[in-house]
Amino acid sequence: MRSFLILGAAALAAASPASPAVDFDAVKAAPAPTATGPAVGVASQTGVYNAAAASASAVAAASAVASAQATASVAARGLEERTFCFWPFKCGSQASAATTSKCTTTSTPPVAHYPTATAAPTTSAATAATTSAPAPVITSASTGAVVPSTCTPVSWTNTFAFTSDTACPTPYEVGTYCGFINPEDPCAPQPDGYGPVSSPDTVDAFKANTELQQEALTAATPKGYQQTFQGLTAAVSANTYLGFYTLESYDTQTCANHCDSTDLCTGFNVYIERDPAWNPEQCSCADPTSISNYKCSLWGSGVDSAAATNTGDYRGSFQVVITGSNGYTQSTTSSSGTSPVATTPDVPSGWTNPKSCSGAVHDHPKTCLGSQVFKGPFDVSLCAKYADAQNAKNVASGKWGSSFTSFWNFFGYNSGKCDFFNAFMIKQDGVPVGTYCKLFTQQYQPAAATYKGGVSAGFSWSFESSWSFCSSK
């Protein structure tokens, strides 16, 4: 019987062509959030990521019924790869390097899980209308920026709905608050970030301002973080955007505090931006003076220089530019006190034993139930929801109840149950893309994660924050 199983496994292996350990086509095809950086002209933006909508997307991603490949040759695989994990040695198997093959999914790509900004004023960086969910909180208020009284809107009618309150001297826009000034209105004063204005007030003078550059070069690295880049002329832009704040100085510690208090935040970017003192679009005063904003943006991933691609833009004829951009990624210090290591993500309910895979990912096609990518911040809970939903569908289908699976259950193997998953942040050309999940029927040690990415379709693919988790059920 053993020889029959071995021959059967060999035949299956010969019939299955090798393919990538990650489905890069699925990564490129998955919908991405449109909120990839701070909104225009506002002082802060929070609540960008909607965890409830993201969880619903993860549950919906589970296919109707999924089973591991080549389930009829479990014993043979144990002999071939020496990876079979006999009960009760859960999460204790040692595995050799696996062959490369993609772990596919039959479900449609999940939708991006960013809410629609319906209760806040519309901006040119409005978030994607993909789910019904609370809007991100976007705030703005009148500042010290002085708008000449001769500046008036040109060919513009305010179409926002207004409401009145006895405590407010004038009506205000629905969905905002008393005293709110919409920075998108023509000639509206813009939030002032307290930075010095260059003299002369030009783009070249701002870029050459050594005072601003020195603030970035002398900024302290907060405890629990490592600096990843310094003094760039571009800010971070990526799928993993979580929100931002305007600061009163180049204050990396305050930005770190914001990151620490924001779910899923593992990196931040502090930079100085040259902005217009008022909105020049559709305004009779089309050449505003400038203000300098200290900005703190938050990210649900590592923050590397490859993602610093936002060099500014134009608002009307006014050129927005950036200087003094520093990046910081959350880390702890190793026992030797020298090299930084990634922080452990929160452990989802029903799962245990988180293990860092050191930038590599698991590739075990014969025990793989499926994979899925969720563009956005690194969120391990999505993989747990996806795995739980897949298990629930397999149970409902009777996948766990057949005599064949019952036989292998005696040895600690179930071809229909996800007993182990690998969650990691996938990066395209060094820029974070989203959480990639791979589900397995068998548990492995970190040493079995050997795939480290490569080049596909002209893009370089790599991984960060690769973690594995074992079922505790």
UniProtKB/TrEMBL annotation:
Native species: Anthostomella pinea
Lineage top rank: taxon: Eukaryota
Protein name according to UniProt: Uu.00g040060.m01.CDS01
Key words of the record: Signal
Stretch forming the signal peptide: 1-20
